[in-house]
Structure formats: structure tokens, C-alpha cells
Amino acid sequence: MEQINCYVCEKEALSKNEIGLTKKLIDKNSKRFYCLDCLAEDLEVDTEFLLAKVEEFKEQGCTLF
Ligand SMILES: [Zn+2]
Fold this sequence. Notes:
Layout: H1 16-25, H2 36-43, H3 47-59
Zinc ion binds at residues 6, 8-9, 11, 34-35, 37-38.
């Protein structure tokens, strides 16, 4: 799979969770992906909230995670 870097801080090789969160919370068709820290900053939430969201989406059976 192609390596994706954070659009903001250029952190390399984003995890599946980070990519999934960008798709879920920003734009399903987004071409720009964010690492957990940058996503939290952009959405004005903390990373704990995002990690809780990942678990929530997983429980819903979301295939992005
Ligand atoms: Zn970043």
C-alpha cells in the first residue's frame, strides 16, 4: 500500500486509523490526510476523543478501521 504522509506536519506513514479518521471526520474523498495530532488540532478536540471515536467506528463495523 502507498505510504501516506500528514498534510500538515508531514509525519510519515500514517496509520490506518489516522487515514480512516480523516475520511470519517473530514471528507470521505479527501486527498489530504492528517495524523492524530493535526486532526485533533483541526477539529479542536483532543486525541483521546479521536481514539474513542476509532473504537466507536470499529464497533459499528466500519471497514475503514
Ligand atoms: Zn500531522
